[in-house]
What we know:
By secondary structure, this protein is α+β, with helices and mostly antiparallel strands. The chain is built from 13 helices and 10 strands. It comes from Bdellovibrio bacteriovorus (strain ATCC 15356 / DSM 50701 / NCIMB 9529 / HD100).
Amino acid sequence: MKKTLTTSAGIPISENQHSLTSGPRGPVALQDYHLIEKLAHFNRERIPERVVHAKGSGAYGTFTVTHDITRFTKAAIFSKIGKKTEAFLRFSTVAGEKGSADTERDPRGFALKFYTEEGNWDIVGNNTPVFFERDPLKFPDFIHSQKRDPQTGYKNPVRMWDYWSKAPEALHQITILFSDRGIPDGYRFMNGYGSHTFSFINDKNERVWVKFHFKSMQGIKNLPVAKAVELAGTDPDYAGRDLFEAIERKEFPRWALKVQIMTERQAEQFRFDPFDLTKVWPHSEFPLLDVGILELNRNPENYFAEVEQAAFSPSNVPPGVGFSPDKMLQGRLFAYPDAQRYRLGVNYQYLPVNRPHSEVNSYHRDGSMRFDGNGGRQDNYEPNGFGGPVQNESFKDPALNLSGTLDRHDSHKDNDDFTQAGNLYRMLSEEEKDRLTSNIAGTMKTISEDLQTKNIEHFKRCDPDYGGRIAAKLGLD
């Protein structure tokens, strides 16, 4: 027997095809509570989309430890070889809206949630090891430059290149963005990176700095520009479809987690700021160390509940993992959970996809859409005399020595924004250099010659050939 349709309050519905009216041609009666509930809910089905990373796809999986790194961290997720931890990974494009195509030239989000026994651990990264900015104060301006023109409502390359002409710190990420890796062939064939510098803390309360790399075990595959444009029109959900269908076929995608480690002393003496998000740590000096394997092996049952409502924040770290003086990371520690409180509500972490698999003991109460018993009869203040949860100093991080004047320090002064971008350019084959410079010139062809020249001067400082090729393709001397 089929189930009976009901209202949200569980009241059986006798008719779902025709509204209650006064006669066949008469007006609709306000007492048709099923109609009113149906329309009212329909009007409220959409929640605010993410300002960035609006369109995405996700899947569940497991992380398995393959190598011992307990000398660096006491995090329980790494406690022994063979240990498995459940995880959820959301991929996304960055600048486009929810209806945008999966194959646009754009960084890709790589947001990972580990459901550890010590609480959720979120690594909210991208498919690139660097970013366009190093200071969070500039982040809103950068994103605005990539979004739609406030007058016309469409995207305008003048805004993008005008901003970048005054932001040479973006050159490293720009070089990646306009290279072949700027359009991955779906989500399975790209790497993921924590990008920021984080910290590991071991059982002796010793700290090291760490970067996270997730290397695609499927290999790297990118889309030619013509194919990406074709797919944008014929299959704009290409990347999400590819991921979902591969998991349904039991072709489970996997990534190898590797880390780079830097000691506090090495960081103090290093030739550039190791917490600068526009730069990478040289692998020759800080080699990749194997840690484990991430496998995605289960698709969500409901896209809205599990992908759209998934919420990530780099502020979610378990004991044994910590932060760093990375300025962009420090800004994201506030911005990400604040965005989710606005988008989903203050109790967003009680949603099933976001709720930790470990025990939660807090004094947070009330607020919109509380999804559980709201703490029951237990009071909500601390310290208290009724045996409520208390702090545990054994989880305290070691002190971090800081020095310097409190000021708005210029992070661009005496900072080399060109060498690493140039090094990346020089690593490319002739064919890759040709495609990179053609992609850049293609987006610059409609902007003024003055703005073209300003940006080309930046590229020339990375490598004379880099800027020279772009200039030649734009017909400039």
